[in-house]
Amino acid sequence: MDQEKLVIVTGASRGIGFFITQELLKKGFKIHMIADQEKRLKEAQIKLKQHGNVVYSVLNLSAREQIKDFCDQWKQEIFGLVNNAGRWAEERIDEPDKNTWDPIMKLNVEGPYFLTKGLQRWIVDNGRIINIASQLGTSGRAGMGAYAASKHAVIGLTRCWALELGTRAITVNAVCPGWINTESNQVEIKEWAEKEGLSLEDKIKEIADPLTLHRFIEPEEVASLVGFLIGSTGSGITGQVYEIK
């Protein structure tokens, strides 16, 4: 068990981040959750506290000054950092500008970059950094240029940080989920289905059928992989990119 080891998880109040937090608490880690809405953080903390020691900070990871202030005030050793917070939006290159590029890049790339840069001195030797990228960080999809570019960047950062922090035995890896069965994805797919005159079940089947496993991945499966990489089992793994789809 890892009762004395602290892990920071961003985007921890819902979706994949919530399940990562839950998995790590069950493994005995202390968790410091970060997200931008206190109401959701409080709700998550109430649900998760049965599993262990969990606290939170409200932080907008799109705001560089907020990140700097948070890092300047931090005074505690960290074992692990999970950069999970992110956003996506659709916009094709041949469409009018929808202002998707800057918000996506600020949260998905600048957020983890400046948070990790500010906190790395507090990460202990033999610590862990896990960046949650995406299947689109290794491929592409029409209409997802900004998001795919941001996740390609996250993978690039992962490989660079692994080299830079290897002298301290800090491992840095990326996890790249495909379609995940989360509440936010269900809401988005329901909107697509309504626009196309399809049932939610038919739209999900349309998306899932071409996938390798012909189904969505459960968030617990992503959390399990993160738990493996953060645990002692991941001590010799670094600079790697894991697709889970």
Structure description:
This is Short-chain dehydrogenase. Pfam families: adh_short. The model has no long low-confidence stretch (mean pLDDT 96). Strands 3-2-1-4-5-6-7 form a seven-stranded parallel β-sheet, sandwiched between helices. With 245 residues, it is an alpha/beta fold.
Could you estimate the helical fraction of the residues in percent?
Answer: 40-55%
In angstroms, what is the radius of gyration?
18 Å
Annotated CATH architecture = 3-Layer(aba) Sandwich
User: Main sheet: which strands, in order across?
Assistant: 3-2-1-4-5-6-7
Low-confidence stretches: none
| SS element count, helices | 8
CATH superfamily: NAD(P)-binding Rossmann-like Domain
The termini sit apart by: 29 Å
Number of strands: 7
CATH topology: Rossmann fold
Strand content: 15-25%
CATH domain class name: Alpha Beta
Tell me briefly what this model is.
This is Short-chain dehydrogenase. The protein has helices at residues 15-26, 38-48, 64-73, 101-119, 145-165, 183-196, 200-208, 219-230; strands at 6-10, 30-35, 54-58, 78-83, 123-132, 171-177, 241-244. α6 (183-196) packs across α7.
Chart the SSEs and their pairings.
Elements: E1 6-10, H1 15-26, E2 30-35, H2 38-48, E3 54-58, H3 64-73, E4 78-83, H4 101-119, E5 123-132, H5 145-165, E6 171-177, H6 183-196, H7 200-208, H8 219-230, E7 241-244
Parallel strand pairs: 1-2, 1-4, 2-3, 4-5, 5-6, 6-7
Helix pairs in contact: 1-8, 3-4, 4-5, 6-7
Organism: Candidatus Uhrbacteria bacterium RIFCSPLOWO2_02_FULL_51_9
InterPro entries: NAD(P)-bd_dom_sf, Sc_DH/Rdtase_CS, SDR, SDR_fam
Family: Belongs to the short-chain dehydrogenases/reductases (SDR) family.
